[in-house]
Amino acid sequence: MNLAVVLSNDWELFGDGSGDFETIQSGPGKTLMRIAEKHGAKMTFMAETGQQKAHLALAATHAWAADASAAWEAFLQDAATRGHGVEAHLHPQWLASNHGPEGWKLGLDWWALPNVPEATRKEALKWSKEYLETIVRKKIPGYHCHAFRAGSFCMMPSHQTSRELLALGIDCDSSVCKGQSMRTKIGGYDYRSAHSYAAPYDANCDDIRKCRPGSGLLEMPILSRPATDLPLLRKLGLFARRLERIPTDEKKRQLERRRRLETLYPSQRRPISNNPDIDWHWLADKLIRRGSLVMDYDFVPPSVIIETLRAVAENHQGDGVLPVTLIGHAKNMVLEDDFDALLSGINATFGGTIRYLTLKEASQQWRQRRS
């Protein structure tokens, strides 16, 4: 079976509100587009709408917020006109945020979308879709926002949010990564029993981990593979496979990544990104994680992602094209050579059989194939 690769990217500041828009969001996003286009690929930017909503609320009285929110819109308009995808992403802690002399303070009790009061959640999802459509249609008439990813993957329990998305006309979700789990006092998820590591499936709205044909909501899971992972070591460039099996050039890139991360975010002031509530469960998960390895192109060596794609292609039988979704975060892209090497390697490995699709294109083609 031939593969189609969806290069999704959660386009956002850090989960506590920290980070400079140009440095960790706009600049890396432009680099991603340039590299993708060089290799005939497309990005899909999962645009953090809660962040934008908070910045727009300050725009009238704070010039920096007005500049950032205008640049946010311009970036997505440019991306859409160049053929890249634009879809919705929401970290709901932004919905309870305020800005003071020390910067942003976010409402971390609303870290997980299901924790947000129903009326507030519905309004935020509706605003997200309509706002994206309004700004992108200025450049691409007829654009519709079809897909969503929950902040920090927190879509559990899913029975309300799934139906709210469908009611808005958002019929594709990409929040599930099989084998992954997270538990904190303010929310989490458990996708260890999810239906698929790679292939899209019709999600049961009552439990998006399960498949129920005809439900209306298509789940495009983030590609993962069974693994015992050591996240802290992996982020230091010591990926949770035997180091000697990683090609020498990738070892060098991982060491360079570590150096640049420390330069950009010195350890004493490095912002949080995913887990605001540190407890023993969180710490244990960071030390050793038995579940899966998510194909995150910001941290996983290109050779491992390519090996995983090859295994998926070999193990899935049938006609047509199987779309698989990779993930990255512009804020984590400190070494553009990694992304360039990944796309070069994919094209060299799969030759003319590989396709690159936006999340919207992939979900629509999968539905057509299944109908």
Could you characterize the architecture of this molecule?
The chain has helices at residues 21-38, 49-58, 63-81, 118-136, 159-168, 231-235, 248-264, 280-287, 302-315, 336-350, 359-370; strands spanning 2-11, 43-48, 85-90, 98-100, 103-105, 147-150, 172-173, 181-184, 187-190, 201-204, 207-211, 218-219, 224-229, 289-294, 321-329, 355-356. By secondary structure, it is α/β, with parallel strands linked by helices. Strands 1, 2, 3, 6, 7, 10, 11, 12, 15 and 16 form a ten-stranded mixed sheet that branches. It has a two-stranded antiparallel ribbon with strand order 4-5. It has a two-stranded antiparallel ribbon with strand order 8-9. Strand 6, helix 5 and strand 7 (172-173) form a beta-alpha-beta unit. Helix 1 packs parallel to helix 10 and helix 9 (302-315) runs parallel beside helix 10 (336-350). The model is unreliable at 237-244 and 272-279 (pLDDT under 50).
